[in-house]
């Protein structure tokens, strides 16, 4: 039975060492951290790797220990040899010390300030106290949001993170399914009302919550099912992952309080479908940000290794329904950094449907063509999409994404808004992208060589790589060029009429600041869905446009898939 002690006493109750540390942020907030320096019955030693755990919204460091040894992550890590530190965000149960601030000023923060001030202060303190130059960071829910803010707003801290593990990651909110999302359209009204009423804190830890948790949620209470269903309704249903006996102690520690502004900031994210700073309204935005809308966080500045962990029935953390997993195939996402700083996304189908064996599978790498992506290999579905066919045939399938397409739009120092980001052609893709991806695959799989299949520009980039960096020829078992492109003398597409004006087009695009050609855009998605839908009278026009540019072959075009082809370009 888990006991309803305060967090440090709970740790000590199970025989683990516990320490309490206080940190002061740059903007004057006092934060409490809890530490388990070593496992039970272990001798204290120096040099242990540091694991820093950061809780989610309305929570506290108690989250990591209330399940007890062998289940609480803090205990598991301590017993595994880690020096475990647990942070507490400003304003929660353990970090409410207020020195020299008015009540209104104290609560004037959101998770933005937690990422800009709280995490850096805690990380610097841990490094100074332990002597370790870096640490592992594990964040849950808002704990991931805070990290993304820090990594983008204060990128110098990326070097202090050995790896970051995001549990139920939250940045973009468009996939949230919890009924809490129904409140998002009213965040402006909620902001005004709470401001008028002086409500600066939401759901603080109180004796009332402790009493209700003990009285209504205990095993003997007929209302226990009500407690569980409230949790399921808000967070998502999974009865196997909930020990109902522990609900009273969970309620005794959670909620632990949060500022009203923190919750409103999440509501703004849901409404805008962006990951951006707090929206104060256009007048204050201009004064504070020098622009009408709040600036986006530059996630491309996050260079620490990030691992995302999510579950499909988590209603508070959205995830994109992958086309591959929709068909029942396993799917992995991998990020690779090139020599010149581009961050590329590769998609992997490690094995076929219903076949979980991984050992000994030959690796095959698929590289898409111009203005396309890894989606090309899967949008036709099983039995027709080459990626599925190869996975079912026993291959370990990897699909690349060239720099600048919809899946590879990050750089260690640049963003797609910077002209310097777009200073590349297929030459750099062959010189830097393919070698980085191939080396990553060989390292990840243990294979000595791979099969390479390139379509159109995917063949061009291969020819560049093997001629400019010939040492990579020995890493290719065989290369298959689909619609190969090297010399363009015999090109028959009407697009060739633009070739004589290439220099002029480059000058014009530079003059007008046009660095990207045909980006993935909601307008094109809409037009593809509207005009190319199976019931649309204009569907034949879509088909004829494709035929005019690429060549006519009606037998090889399934018109029903044109809409998906356009939206997944």
From TrEMBL:
Q: Name the Gene Ontology molecular function terms of this record.
A: hydrolase activity
UniProt keywords (A-Z) are: Glycoprotein, Hydrolase, Lipid degradation, Lipid metabolism, Signal
What InterPro entries does this protein's entry cite? AB_hydrolase_fold, AB_hydrolase_lipase
Q: Which residues form the Partial AB-hydrolase lipase domain?
A: 9-67, 321-380
A Gene Ontology biological process annotation?
A: lipid catabolic process
Question: Which domain of life does the protein's organism represent?
Answer: Eukaryota
Q: Which SUPFAM superfamilies does this chain map to?
A: alpha/beta-Hydrolases
Q: Which family does it belong to?
A: Belongs to the AB hydrolase superfamily. Lipase family.
Q: What is this protein called?
A: Partial AB-hydrolase lipase domain-containing protein
Q: Write the lineage as a comma-separated list.
A: Eukaryota, Metazoa, Ecdysozoa, Arthropoda, Hexapoda
